[in-house]
Structures are given as structure tokens and as C-alpha cells.
């Protein structure tokens, strides 16, 4: 388990405490989403053109030749390795 996964696990434990205000739980959820976007996800091969791939989070078309580290729309970290 990497550091990001450990942090998400701990935040989920903390937000499970009884009696927390909803605003605190919302903040934990926001932190979890931010950490998850920092963890690279494999790109989706959804189209016939090998240069056009989709973000695994928001499904926005991304272009393989640009090789950006993050989706320009949602900020998801991208792992450009495509599984066949």
C-alpha cells in the first residue's frame, strides 16, 4: 500500500467517527478526491484512433502525442501506458 492509499484509508476511518459535523465529513471527502486525482490512472482506449484516448475520470478526449501528466479538464494524473 502506497502513501496515498494509506492516507485515504486513514481519512475514511476518521470521517467514520460519530458526531462529526457534515462540514467536516465534506472536507474529508474533498481531501480524498484530491488525493485520488494525484494517483495516476491508466488511460482509456475508447476510439479507433490510437492517438485519441479518454481520461479515466471524466472521459475527456486526450491526445497521446501531447503526453501531458494530467487531464486538462479534471486534473486527474494520467498513466499513458495503454493495456491491450
Features:
two-stranded parallel ribbon; 4 strands; 84 residues; two-stranded antiparallel sheet; 2 domains; alpha+beta; 36% helix
Number of strands: 4
Most strands sheet: 2 strands, parallel
Percent helix, as a range, is 25-40%
Q: Count of DSSP helices?
A: 2
Q: Which structural category do the helix and sheet elements fall into?
A: alpha+beta
Mind explaining what this structure looks like?
It is a single chain. With 84 residues, the chain is of the alpha+beta class. It folds into two domains: 36 residues, no CATH class; 45 residues, no CATH class. 36% of the residues lie in helices and 12% in strands. It is built from two helices and four strands. The protein has a two-stranded parallel ribbon with strand order 1-4. A two-stranded antiparallel ribbon has the order 2-3. Helix 1 packs antiparallel against helix 2. The longest helix has 17 residues. The protein is elongated. The chain starts with a helix and ends in a 5-residue tail after the last strand.
Structure in a nutshell:
The chain has helices at 3-15, 22-38, and strands at residues 41-42, 52-54, 61-63, 78-79. By secondary structure, it is of the alpha+beta class.
